[in-house]
Amino acid sequence: MDTKEIIKKVRKVEIKTKKLTNNVFGGEYQSTFKGRGMTFSEVRSYEFGDDVRTIDWNVTARYNEPFVKVFEEERELTLMLMVDISGSKLFGSEDQIKKNIVTEISATLAFLQYRITIK
Fold this sequence. Notes:
Blueprint: H1 3-22, E1 27-29, E2 34-35, E3 39-45, H2 57-63, E4 67-72, E5 75-77, H3 98-117
């Protein structure tokens, strides 16, 4: 199976699963989780138990009440593909040997991960 055939098959799968991949988190994405990140989200009133290191001293001085900075938690998910390349991959029918099926599945997963990451 050559590269052009694999890409043609992957494109078919991509079209069928496009809606599904829009709902899956993968790669770098905007997190809805608040936490210790580098991306500033908002300023809110200080609540008991908040880390004092997150106090925004400029806003606190302006309003005479403590405010804290809230950051978005940054997440990155990594896809690792591990494929068995032993001789058993040559088993199958004339049309579909395991090696070709595994290649197609791996290419599909890698392509979908790439699509999610570049959004």
